[in-house]
Every structure is written in C-alpha cells, then in structure tokens.
Amino acid sequence: MLVDTHCHLDFKRFDEDRPAVVARALEHGVRRIIVPAIDLDNCPTVLALAKAYPAVRAAIGVHPNSCVPWEDEWLDRVRRLAKEVDVVAIGEIGLDYYWDHAPREIQRIAFAAQLALAAELNLPVIVHNRDASEDVVRVLGESALNGRVGPGVLHSFSAPWKAAEAALEMGFYLGFTGPVTYKKAEDLRAVVARTPIDRILVETDAPFLAPHPYRGRRNEPAFVTFVANQIAEVLRLEQDEVQAITTENAERLFGQRLSKSDDPGE
C-alpha cells in the first residue's frame, strides 16, 4: 500500500477523467492521496474532493506564488478551513524564487504566518521550495515547528544535501517525486541514499513531473509506485518494504485524519 502525499487532483487536467484516475490509483495500491490547496479560491475545491473520494485528504494553505496581495484576514480563513476533519496539513506553503510571482519579502511573511498557524493548530506543513533553500531553512528554523516531532515535509525535494541535512535535523521529512527516476538525477538519488528511510515520503505532484517511463505525459497518483520502486533500488531494499515504510511515515506525520478507515474494503 502507498500514500501519494502530494497530488493536485483538483487541477483542470483531471476534469475529464478524475473518477478513473482515482480508481487506477486504488488498483495500484495507493491507499491515500493528499491534495494541497494553492490559494484561498481552491481551498473549497480540495475539501470537496476529500468529501467525494474516501481515499482523498486535503491540505489548506496559500502557495508562495499566490500570496499577493497578502492580507492578515487570509490567515483567519485558512484557520477556519483547516479545522475540517479531512484536512491533514497546512500547505502548500513556502518560498519560490524561480518564478518570483510575488515579492520575496511578502512570500516570507506569508510563509512565517502559516507556519505559526500550523503550530497553533498542531498540524504538519507541506513546504514548497524552489531556488530558495537558504531562506526556507532559515524561516523553518525560526518557526515554532522547529524541533517538534514530525513538523512537516519538504515536498518534491530537489535541493542539495546541505538543505536536506538542515531540514532533517529540524525533524522534517523529505518528499521525492518523479525526477528521482530520471537518468541524469544522480545528485538527487545521492540525497535519497543519505536520507534515513523513516524520513522519506513518496509523491507525484501530479499532473506534473511524471516519472520515467511516462516523462512528458500527464502524471497521476498511480505512478507513485515508480517513485517508491526507484527509492527501493537506491537503498537496496525490497519494493514492498519501501512501500510499507513510506506509508507508515505518512501515517505518522499526518496522523489520525489520514489513517482513519472509511474507504471501501477497509
């Protein structure tokens, strides 16, 4: 059994066949799919998906590329929505210096505010980091989540080992996606090799970052098996063992709201 800990199932690219996508995921042993919000407008959408599909859970938050104009009132709206029973985390939050759609200072304010909210609500965080490792590590280190047991996950991890080491020291998990399967991703696989197995999560970030051999196509939750199998190869473990351990990791991080048994067959 597997948990896809990051999938944008609400995006338009799934509108024509979303039920079939979820069904394929279940057929491939994907037990849970976590769908993170990216802005306040789609928070109700991810919550609706969690209510419509027993395998789906939601995360609520404002992505760094969506944080302009940041208003303090937004935090109250995130707080209210995050109390829904199907919400397992605050996310997707963080910093993005690649696209730079929002001023960096505004991004840091929004990130710190949502980290504080997660600490207040005792929820883990799903952290986005693109070309901002130094500031992501610094803001996480200054937050009340630093040192907590299972404060969150750095999703679709692609930064150097230095950032991984700092995050792991603060108690964070690392989430790996399709790029770990790519031929030229030796540096990323080297990070996997140095990461404790009990801190690894598997994700798709669908519809993006499809793994080999589906690179260039729409990604979907069923493909998370390719990520888990690549990690098994890197760590020289059995595929079933990595699937079981990463599922245990997800359940430990995201807690009872993730693991509650209400889907068919459980």
Structural class: alpha/beta
Give the SSE order as H and E letters. Answer: EHEHEHEHEHEHEHEHHH
Q: Outline, from the CA principal axes?
A: globular
- Global mean pLDDT: 95
Fraction in helix:
40-55%
Q: Could you state the oligomeric state of the chains shown?
A: single chain
Q: Low-confidence parts lasting 5 or more residues at pLDDT below 50?
A: none
Major β-sheet annotation: 8 strands, parallel
How large is the radius of gyration? 17 Å
Beta-strand fraction estimate: 15-25%
Distance between the termini: 12 Å
Number of helices: 10
Account of the 3D structure:
With 266 residues, this protein is an alpha/beta fold. Helix content is 41%, strand content 15%. The chain has helices spanning 18-27, 43-52, 72-82, 104-121, 133-142, 161-169, 186-194, 224-235, 239-254, 256-259; strands at residues 2-4, 30-36, 56-60, 87-96, 125-130, 152-154, 173-176, 200-202. It has an 8-stranded parallel β-sheet with strand order 1-2-3-4-5-6-7-8. Helix 4 (104-121) links the parallel strand 4 (87-96) and strand 5 (125-130). It is globular. The mean pLDDT is 95.
